Queue: 4 jobs
Job 1
Amino acid sequence: MNGRRLYKSQNDRKLFGVCGGVAQFLRIDATLVRIGVVILTIFTGIPALIYVLMAMIMPTEPRWGELDDPYDMYASGKRVYREPHDLDAQLEHLEKRALVQEVQRLREELLKYKGV
C-alpha cells in the first residue's frame, strides 16, 4: 500500500465529491470518471446505486487536502499551490507547516546530542 486513501473530494465535486475523490485516488481526470459513471448508468443502472453507497460510506477529504504540500498523501511529485477557500484553511495550513518544521528542528537537535 502506498499510503493513499480514498476520500470524497472537497475541491472537485459536482454532487457529493465521489467521482472527484475516485479520480484523485486513481490520479486521472475527474471528467473521465464522471463520463464513465454516466455511460455505465445509462446501460446498466448499477453505478448509480454504487455512487449513492459510496457517498454514504466514503469519508470527506480533510481540510488540509486543499493545499498541496510535502506532507500531502495525494502529492504527485509536481508542486502545485492551490489557494485555500477561506482564512481558516490558510491558518490551518500555516499551523501544520510550522508544527512540522518545529518537529524536524527538534529531531535534528536530538540527533546532535545523541551523536556527541
Note: The chain has a mean pLDDT of 77.
Job 2
Amino acid sequence: MNSNRTLATPRRMVGDYDQSGEHMFTSLAEDVIAFAGAEVEFERVAVTGDQVAAYHLPTAPPKTTDRRSFTGTATTQAEALPPDILAAIVRGAVEAHRDPAAHREVLAREQVQRRAIRELLARTSHPEDVLRSETASERDPVLGRIR
C-alpha cells in the first residue's frame, strides 16, 4: 500500500478458527485497506489456536474440500467460546487500546451534559414542546439546548 495515512485504532475481529474464518479475516483486512486508502491494523481477538487449547474448545478436522490456506490442524467455531469468556476477551482487547485519560475526559463531559439536560427539563413543564419548537441552528451543538 502506498498510502501515507494510517488509521490509529486497530480493527478487532472475532471469527471461526477454520479456513473460512482465516479467509474472512485476511479478505476483510485487504478490502478495508483498499477502500480506506490507508494502512489499517487488524487484530484477531478470537478464536485463536491458543484459545482453543486454553479453553479446551471442541474441534473438528478442517474441511478437505476447502482449499483455502489454514495453519491449524483442527477447526473451532467462534460460538464454542462461552459468552462470558468471549466478552472478557473482547473487553480486554478494546481496553488494551483505550486511552484512560481520554476516557475520563469523556465521562466528565458527559456528566456535565447530563446535568445541563436535567436542569433544562426541570425548568420546562413540557420539554417535548421546547425541543420541537427549536431549529437546529438555535441549539447548542453539544447539549442540544437553546443558546
Note: The chain has five helices and two strands.
Job 3
Amino acid sequence: MTVAITPIYAAIVALLMAGLSMHVGMMRGRYGVALGDGGARPLALSIRRFGNLSEYAAMLVLLMLVMELTGTAARTLHLYGIAIVLLRLIHPIVLFDDMAAPLWRKAGRFVAAGGTALLLVLGAAAILL
C-alpha cells in the first residue's frame, strides 16, 4: 500500500513548525536569551507555541499515517489532515499567558485545544474499531 495523503499534511505541519521555530530564534535574539526564557514573557509564550505544536502534531500525524495504512478512506484522511492543520494553525494565534486575554482568544484556545483532543480520540477510535 502506498502512502500518498499523510505526507502532504506532515509537510504542512513541518512548515508550521519551522515558522514557529524561527520565531523562537528571533525572540531569543531580541531578548538575548540562549536557554530557557530568561523571564521574558513574550519569549516564554513563543517557546510554548512551538512546544505545544511539537507535543501534539507528532501523535496526530502518526495516527493519520496508521489510519492511512489500515485503509481509511481518502476523504476521511483529508478531512482529518485539514483539521490538524487548521487547529494547529489557530492554536499559536490564540495562545495567551494572561487570563485577562480577550474572549475571542479564550474561545479560540478552547476550540483549538478541544479540537485537538477530539482528533486524538477520533484517530485512536478509527484505528481500534
Note: The CA atoms of residues 25 and 48 lie 13 Å apart.
Job 4
Amino acid sequence: MRADELENKRLRMFRFANDLLHAQYDSLPDSAKTHELSLTIDATFLAAPSRGMSKAQKERRRDDQTFPLDPDAGWYYREYDQRDSWDGTETHAKKVGYGYEAELAVLVSNDAEHRESVPHIIVGFNFHKPSTEWNFHAREVFDDILAWGHGFGYIIGDQAYLPNANPNMLQNSLRENGAMLSMRYPVKSSVASKGEGTKQAVAHGAFMLEGRWMCPATPMTHRDIMLRYNKAVSNDKKNPKLTKAMREERELSHRQRRYAQLQERAKWELGQKDVKANGNLVMTCPASGSNRHLDCPLKPNEPAPKDGVDLMTVENPPKMPGDICTNKNSVTFEAEHGAKYRQHHRYGTPEWDDMHTYGRQTIESFNRSLKRSDNTLKESTNRRLRGEPSQAFLTILGVVAQNGRNIFNWLEEEYDDNRPAQPPRRRQKRTNHHAPVKRTTTRTKKKPSRDLSAARRARYGLIPA
C-alpha cells in the first residue's frame, strides 16, 4: 500500500474518532460547556497483541521460524523520574514494550478551585507508533478542537510537549489561539538542560528564568529558589530519622518559604506593557515608571513610586547594560525570544501549583482508568487486530466507554446546574498569596524516528533543522 493511501486511512480514522468525542462533549448539559476549553495532554502506551523483534532477534532468526508480527507497531522505551506534585514524591519508572501510543487530550475545569464544574473526559485523540512525531500528533488534536469552533483556556502538558516541543509546532500556535500554557521545567542537571535555575533565553540585556524575563541584576539568591527547595525536600527524604508525618510537615514549611521567596522575586521581573498582534511583547524595566519596585543607578530620574512602595536597591547593575536598561520607556521582545519556555503563571507559585498539579493528576488518573481490569484495553489479547487503524478503532471504543462512565459518575455525584462552568480568568496578580487555593467540591464517594517528515514540516511552515 502506498504512503498516501496509508495516510488517507490514518486521517479517516482520526476523523471518525474525534467526531465520536465531539458528539460526547455536545451531549453535556449546556451549563458544563464553555467556548474556551482547558485541556491536559499526554500519551499512553498500549501493547500490541503481537511480539516485537529486536535487532539481535532478527539476526538470529531462522528461515523456517514463524512469529506473529504487527509491522505498524514500534518499540516503546522510557526511563524517568515522575514528579507531578510538590509533596516531594518521585516515582522512578522504566517501561519497555512493543505497541502504540494514544495521544489523549482531557477536558479540565478552567478554574482549579471548581474542578467539579466539568467531567474529566477525553475530547481529543490521536494514535501512532511510539516516540514518533508526538508533537505533530498533538498539534493535529489541537487544530481539530479549534476547527470545532472552540478556543483555549489552559493547556497543560508533560515535558515531552511543554517545554520540549518545537515552539513553531506547539507553543506559538497555542498562544496565538489564546492558550495559557502550563509546564514543568526539568530539574537542573546541567546548564544545557535549560531547566530550573538556569538562563533559558537572553535578549536586550535581560534573561529568562523559569519562563519569566528578569532584570540582569537579579540577585543569585532569587535565581536558585527552586533549586534550594528541591534540595531541602530531597535531603528530608534521605533522612532516616524523619517519619512520614514529619517529612510532610517540613515539606509544607519548605513550600511556604518558597512561595514567599518567589513573591519577592516577582519585583525583579520585567513588566509586560502590551502584547502585539504578532505575539511580540512590549516589556518595561522594573526600575522605571511609577509602578516600579527597584531603585537602580542606571535609571536616576524616575518618578516616585505609587502608594509609597519601598523600593529595593539594585546593588550590582550590569557594567554593559542592554536596551532594557538604556531605553527610556520600553523594549519590544520578539515572540520567538524564549517562546519555548514562557508560561502563564509564575513557576512554582500557588496558582501554578494548583492548576498544573490538577491537570497532570487528572490525565494520569484517566490513563490508569483506561487500563483497569474492567476495561478491555488492559490486555492486548483483547485487541487481536493488526495494523494501526484497527488498533486505533478498538482503542477509541474503549476511550468512548470510559468517557461514558466518567460522565455518568459526574452527573450522579458532582453536577450542579446552579454552578455552571466559568471561562478562564486571564488576569494575573503582581503578587501571590502564600497559601495554596483549596479545592471546593461537593463530591461524595460511592461505594465501592522523532523527526518530522519533510511533508509535515512543509505543512506547518517549519524550517528543517
Note: Residues 199-333 form one domain.
